[in-house]
Amino acid sequence: MTTRRATIADVAREAGVSPSTASVVFSGKTPVSDATRRRVIEAATELGYSGPDPRAASLRLGRSGIVGVVVGSSLKDLFRDPVQRVMMDGLAEAVAPFGAGLLLLRNHTDIENAPTLTTAPLDAVVLVGCDGPLRELLEAAHRRGLPVVVIEGDAGPGVPRVLLDNREAQRTAAQHLADLGHTDVAIVMLSTGAPTIGAEITVGWIDPDATADITIDVTRDRLLGARDVYPDAPALATAGSSIDEGWAAGRVLFASDRPTPTAVIAQSDLLAAGVIRAAEEAGLRVPEDVSVTGFDGLPADGLAPYELTTLVQAAAEKGRAAGEAVAAMLAGDEPASVLLTCQFRVGNTTGPVISAR
Amino acid sequence: MTTRRATIADVAREAGVSPSTASVVFSGKTPVSDATRRRVIEAATELGYSGPDPRAASLRLGRSGIVGVVVGSSLKDLFRDPVQRVMMDGLAEAVAPFGAGLLLLRNHTDIENAPTLTTAPLDAVVLVGCDGPLRELLEAAHRRGLPVVVIEGDAGPGVPRVLLDNREAQRTAAQHLADLGHTDVAIVMLSTGAPTIGAEITVGWIDPDATADITIDVTRDRLLGARDVYPDAPALATAGSSIDEGWAAGRVLFASDRPTPTAVIAQSDLLAAGVIRAAEEAGLRVPEDVSVTGFDGLPADGLAPYELTTLVQAAAEKGRAAGEAVAAMLAGDEPASVLLTCQFRVGNTTGPVISAR
DNA sequence: TTGTACGCGTTATCAA
DNA sequence: TTGATAACGCGTACAA
């Protein structure tokens, strides 16, 4: 026999009070006499009642304490990026104070029955790293009346965004290189969003005029920033932010059959780390022979001896801003978009051009 | 004026059918005539109704489609480890088919009001990487009547676990080194769970007799496996699985003031990668001068030129097994613990001892 | 195939 | 400070 789980009504009866009084004891929203409270608590322990059923409470209250995080890629891909990790941490931290947690939802999934925006009991939605069909997601959320916040992506008017000054920041780094005298500069880019034909070919030159075709804002904006200073710099696209991708790009850049650039602008610290390794392997010293700049400014694992010249972005703040936007919307306020700015940090991976080569 | 959101009753009225019929149209649990279905769907679109409210449904059905994942550390720490990333992917994939998603919950948090096992509308709980006060968590879950699964940790009898043959696997790798003739072997360990005094001191020698004090099963079991072959091998503890920690350990191992080991058993691939980098820096070639073994067997970023000799664990399978255990418990079945086994893979980071040194 | 009636467990409101 | 009442929105026996 499966004895029915005790409800607040059972507790109230056992304690000799009304259900509403028992409820109040648990929520604390109304003063209750000590004696009553004690009786209720006692009855609860007696019956093994461990507080209001969240499901019933969420129906009654109209909020579940759950914020859906729609991730564009698989979990393992998303969290491979330190920026995303820290960002998620900030997001979790920002929604926790109002009792909310993060429910991971994937955008595309071929799994039948998988939970979605429309089937999960959500209070709000945060879109992170979603490049493709934002429209559908937004529509689904809107029909549900769910507040939506987008992190680094465009969701159209009315949807608050958390943005970074990617272009300006990247321009700063490029200018730094220009000031050091570099003229022969290459760019190593994040994913362009172009479908990868065959998983093997991950690195490829970008047509100088194809800038507008890049659908991923981050990639495009950082490219534009670099091009603001070096309009003709060749750019190499990768499959994403990783040391290995940077390494692969570096091998192309430092191949003996072409002139070696004196500086490389990498669009992430991980890419920069890979480029540096490739340089080392090619017998080039950093920064004496090649200067390298990164982007992100988080402690990157595996970069140990170097301290990157990079743009420090407030990754945790990015998540926190999104969380606060969510909180504002749930409170009925009109949330504003947030533009966060990066800080340029000079490390030991950039130096002046040494003319005698 | 905030127009009330349409409910299934509104839709039914609009369509001229009963609420139950409308409900059935959406759940599909009972055949409905095409004409009726069409009318209902039409009414729904008309009213902007986008399916049953998940909150109400979850109260009614007694299940929310949410599996709580209690993580011991912060999100960014947890997901730094590729094994955890892949494991979470497997878990998400395994619970998706029955409409469930993962809600991230932190064990310790100083944030007031943060969601917990008792306040979140969960169907089940998975504990991952929780070392400390499991008892409290288990009790909370038990009082709620929530099924619990523990991944690599001991939750006492009755709680299904997903385990790895850490000791046996590590022994295999050690034996491989022994077969190659290595006698001077050092071990680089994962975190021992000992409180780090001052965040700076991350690497330290482990008292050979202190094995039993290691509270983290993974670390202890892999150590035991290595000691099965090399009972006296010196062991260096780190703060966790990362290239940087391995690098720091490697610097200690290859310091000029002590005899250099001919082989290093690292308890993770990331640690191994760091050890290799330290070896390179010390002017040692791998595997000619030093052999290095890892553990995990996932593609590790930043290891590019090498292919580790390592133990391949089915990380995704680990998550999937946990998800299936959850599914079984929700279905009322008695789920069994699962023991997964690693597969030894020989790469190019181990070789025979070269006597002429 | 459709409709009626009821309860899932809670909490806000208001009156006492 | 406490209690009665009425939703919250839905799913499902059961009867028709």
Written overview of the protein:
2 copies of one chain form a homodimer. With 357 residues, chain A is α/β, with parallel strands linked by helices. Chain A has 3 domains: 8-52, 434 Repressor (Amino-terminal Domain) (Orthogonal Bundle), CATH 1.10.260; 61-164 and 314-341, Rossmann fold (3-Layer(aba) Sandwich); 166-312, Response regulator (Rossmann fold, 3-Layer(aba) Sandwich). The first copy, chain A, has 12 helices and 13 strands. In chain A, α11 (269-281) links the parallel β9 (263-266) and β10 (291-293). The longest helix of chain A is centred in the last third of the chain and has 16 residues, at 315-330. The radius of gyration of chain A is 26 Å and the shape is elongated. The model of chain A has no long low-confidence stretch (mean pLDDT 91). Chains A and B meet through α4, α6, β2, α7 and α10 of A and α4, α6, β2, α7 and α10 of B. Chain A binds a DNA duplex (16 and 16 nucleotides) through α2 and α4.
